[in-house]
Structure formats: structure tokens, C-alpha cells
Design goal:
mainly alpha; 10 helices; 73% helix; transmembrane helix; transmembrane
């Protein structure tokens, strides 16, 4: 009698396991397939980005070499190839080089456009903020204050990598447009700041002295000196043969001088 009960119980367990299997095995299969597709998709995307980084690095290096050899046409072609084939970092850097070439040809509007495109091409805050800051400096003498403020205010936030440079540029823009009190307050903060580069601190002191003495005629010289001060260098790039990701990025071009 005990054997009969055990056999019945075993058959019931077997039926229960079969029902569970019919219910959950399709679900498990779908989960496995989705995970496999996701893994393959991520691998494909990573390979694609690595390939773009390598192509961008190679083209960018050829552009720099062409510049060193005084071959501007070859440099433009190489930088354009980096823009079209490179990943975000190398595309941004190549656009900045194209902007510098536009400045050499005295094509300021083209340079501003290329710097703006460079800022949008990468998520690296050092590269993007450097490009945005250069564009703002190029517009310093011609753009209305509202446009300069819209460009510089986000860059001047304390958590941005070039905030001291942007705060200085914003103060000088306001000073040029007659807002001396606002400009002086910002310049005093820069003068006393702990993490302010020496060049910016000295220019802030000069601007404060100019405001206090009423020597408005000295403002253009201060603006020109500020435009010539380069931002901090970005991390150096690995050789093109080693480039595999946008994490490596060469230092951006020096800040533009007055045209």
C-alpha cells in the first residue's frame, strides 16, 4: 500500500514538473536569446567605435604631419578625413584644426562655425568647452552681450573644466558693454580664487586696476592678452597605431589670437 502511495506521489510530482517546464522554458529561452543579442550588439558597437577611433587617429596624425611640412592642402584633406571617419574626440580635434586654418585665412565666421561644430562633436568636456571658449573669444568684439553671455555662462559654472577662463571672458565681455560693476565683482573673485591660473589672475588684476583708475582705453589690450592665453592642455594622444577608443585625445590647438 505504501508503494502505491509513493508511486502516485511521484507521478504527481512528474506532472507538476512538466507543467512548470512548459510554462517557464519558453520564457527562459527568450531571456537567453535577448541577452545574447544584447551582448553581440554591444560587441559590434564597441568594435565599430574602436575602428573609427583608429581611422580618426591615423588621419589626424597625417594632418599634423602635413602642417609640420607646410602642406596646408594635404592637412585640410587629412583633417576632413578625420572629421568624416573619426570618432567624437578625433572629429572634434580635426574640426578645431580646420578652424585654426580658417583663422589663418582670416575667415572668422567659418572658424566660429567650425569651433561650434567641434564643441558638439564630443562629450569630452575639456575638448568641447575649449572649442566653445575659442568661438566666444572670436565673437568678443562683434557679438551682442546677450549672445556672449549665452555662450559663456554655461562654461563658467564651477564644475566645468575651463570655468576660470570662461568667467574671465564673461567679465571682460560685460566690461566692454558698460557693465563695469558686474565685471569688477567677477574679476575680484578670480583674483582671490585658489584654483585660478596665474595668467588669468594677473589679467584680472590688470582689469580691476583699469576699472578703478577709469582707464577705459586700456581695455582692448587686456582683451587681446586674454585671447592669446591658451587654456590648459588636454591629455596627450597615444600614437595612431595604438588608438582604440575616444578616451585618448591630444591637446587642443592654442587659443586663437585677435584677427
Amino acid at each position: 500500500m505504501v508503494d502505491v502511495f509513493e508511486q502516485v506521489e511521484e507521478e504527481l510530482r512528474s506532472d507538476r514538473y512538466k507543467r512548470l517546464a512548459r510554462t517557464w522554458l519558453p520564457v527562459a529561452a527568450v531571456v537567453v536569446i535577448v541577452a545574447l543579442i544584447g551582448a553581440l550588439g554591444w560587441w559590434g558597437w564597441d568594435s565599430y567605435q574602436s575602428n573609427r577611433a583608429a581611422k580618426g587617429a591615423e588621419a589626424y596624425d597625417r594632418g599634423l604631419e602635413a602642417l609640420r611640412e607646410s602642406k596646408p592642402a594635404d592637412a585640410r584633406a587629412a583633417f576632413q578625413e578625420a572629421v568624416e571617419q573619426g570618432n567624437g574626440a578625433y572629429k572634434a580635434l580635426a574640426l578645431q584644426q580646420q578652424a585654426a586654418q580658417a583663422l589663418d585665412a582670416n575667415k572668422v565666421p567659418d572658424a566660429v562655425r567650425l569651433f561650434d561644430e567641434s564643441a558638439k562633436a564630443t562629450r569630452d568636456p575639456i575638448l568641447s568647452d575649449t572649442a566653445s571658449l575659442k568661438a566666444a573669444w572670436l565673437l568678443m568684439d562683434t557679438a551682442p552681450l546677450a549672445e556672449l553671455e549665452s555662450r559663456l555662462t554655461p562654461l563658467a559654472e564651477d564644475d566645468r573644466p575651463l570655468h576660470a577662463f570662461a568667467q574671465h571672458a564673461l567679465a571682460l565681455a560685460r566690461l566692454q558693454h558698460g557693465k563695469a560693476a558686474e565685471a569688477r565683482s567677477a574679476l575680484v573673485v578670480l583674483q582671490l580664487g585658489q584654483d585660478v591660473p596665474d595668467a588669468i589672475r594677473q589679467q584680472a588684476q590688470a582689469a580691476i586696476a583699469m576699472i578703478d583708475s577709469g582707464t577705459v582705453a586700456a581695455l582692448p589690450k587686456i582683451v587681446d592678452a586674454a585671447k592669446a592665453a591658451p587654456p590648459p592642455a588636454a591629455p596627450q594622444v597615444a600614437p595612431a597605431s595604438q588608438a582604440a577608443s575616444p578616451a585618448s585625445a591630444p591637446a587642443p590647438a592654442a587659443a586663437p589670437t585677435q584677427q
